[in-house]
Amino acid sequence: MIRIRALELKNFKNVEQGRVLLSRADSVEDIGDGADVIGLYGQNGSGKTSFIQALSILKTLMSGEPLPIKSSEYVACDQDAFELSVEFFVAAGDDDALSDYILGISDTCPAHMPYIASYAVKVGACSGKSPLVLSESLSCKDLESGESLHEVFSWEVRGGASSGEPEPARASGISEPLAKLVESARGQWSYDATDIAPSTHWRALMGIDKTLSSRLEATRDKVFQQGESLLFSPGFASFCADMLNDGTKAISKAAAEAVNRVLIPSFSVAFSCGEFAKKDMAVLPTTHQGVLPLGYLPLASHEGERGDYVDNFMLLDIDSKDPMPAQRVDELERALDNVNKVIGQIVPGLSVSVKRLGKVAGNNGETLESIELMSVRGESSVPLRNESEGIQKILSIVSLLIDVHTNPSAFVGIDELDSGVFEYLLGEILQAIAEHGFGQLVFTAHNLRPLEVLPSSSIWFTTVEPDRRYTKASGVRDSNNLRKMYLKDIRLGGVGDEVYVPTSPLRIDGALYDAGMMARDMRQQARG
């Protein structure tokens, strides 16, 4: 189980530096005592979407997947790389597959290990704009042993920007074609990686099995070329698992200490974070709802092959009656049964049903079925495609809201949660999750209703200062209306961080007039 405590951004788009506390949990035992609902507010272009994008980058890295090409565009101007630092609680090996690896490896290391951990990553871009992971570090503190936070894993690319003809890429344990790919990916960065640190411990581990060590070096070269994390890669997990499972070898005292000191914590945290990112973490940018006007409904669901994944979506073409596999229709009906338990309370009287239009045989003999999704209110029903985008959006994320409400492991980040949603309804939904839920929800919004229903500890504001991009309201009492305080701070300025770049109705009016006159002159010239 994971609970993200805080995320810090450096040189990420327009965020020179900014840190947001995401959880009120003070220990692993606090996870599950209640939900952590965090809202980010501020004017347009002030860093809200950047924070959600940073969460998406984190999810990608922890999932062991390559960074998308556009990640390189997030590096701030005049900078070589951006950095993300995340703090989290980890209950590792607690009734999951990890205990199969670590149980019985060491008398001093039980199967259930609560950690507080800190992970930092630096991402840059080569000349071809491909994103590259330039450094990673992981520090852990075993909360049961009382030890201090200490580094258990780190590595980085030496040298930074290259100049002149690059030296041959180190190709330890990798094929010549892969070495050439690494060479071509370097561009701006010279790939000369440091040893994995703490070097004393990791050298002792590497000496146990030279074959495994060579395989790990090959993995590092490969993930660098592909823009992936080494720590969360399948190759690193395989190295650690093989090291732990090979209990027949006699190892030195230094190697035995290294197993307990760095190998088990690194593997435990990396394994747990990977499972969390793939199964319990969902991050929805604005592009998620951008498919709605195109006639597609991304319906969050726990049906199908990826049913245990929080971010499992059925992408439904609600403008079309094209047949789909009959099994998928059954899965859709089960998903809607769950959604309808909630949607009728959010939009009173509403439910969604599947209208079956007939079966046909597919080219491979598979049974296909044509359907129409219907919006039902009492005795009246209309095709779902005729409902507003607001209702369609709520439908698409209801299962995610259910997860945050019921699952302590769930983490959901949504950009512009309020888009198309009635402000009073938005407040009701967030209040229900904040007061009675168990997971984590991070959202951005422009609607200020949540400022009236959520505690001030749940609200973060963007500032005009790039090096101090996120801040909390100070001096807020229980009797204060945070919405009124925020609007007053915008109008009059406050004693704390400035949260709004001043705008003027008169200047906006003047700019609109000048632009209108220019457009009029252009039209007149075009008419001759």
- What is the total domain count? 2
Shape designation: globular
Work out the strand percent. 15-25%
Between the first and last Cα atoms, what is the distance in angstroms? 70 Å
The whole-number mean of residue pLDDT values reads 83
Rounded Rg: 26 Å
Question: What about the largest sheet?
Answer: 6 strands, antiparallel
Q: Specify the number of helices.
A: 13
Strand tally: 18
Q: What is the share of helical residues?
A: 25-40%
Widest sheet: strand ordering: 2-1-4-5-6-7
Briefly note the structural class of the backbone: alpha+beta
The low-pLDDT segments are: 103-111, 161-174
Account of the protein in words:
This protein is an alpha+beta fold. It has 2 domains: 1-280 and 407-528, no CATH class; 297-388, no CATH class. The protein contains 13 helices and 18 strands. Strands 2-1-4-5-6-7 form a 6-stranded antiparallel sheet. A 6-stranded mixed sheet has the order 8-15-16-3-17-18, sandwiched between helices. Strands 11, 12, 13 and 14 form a 4-stranded antiparallel sheet that branches. The longest helix is centred in the middle third of the chain and has 27 residues, at 253-279. The N and C termini lie far apart (70 Å).
Write out key terms for the chains shown.
alpha+beta, six-stranded antiparallel sheet, six-stranded mixed sheet, 18 strands
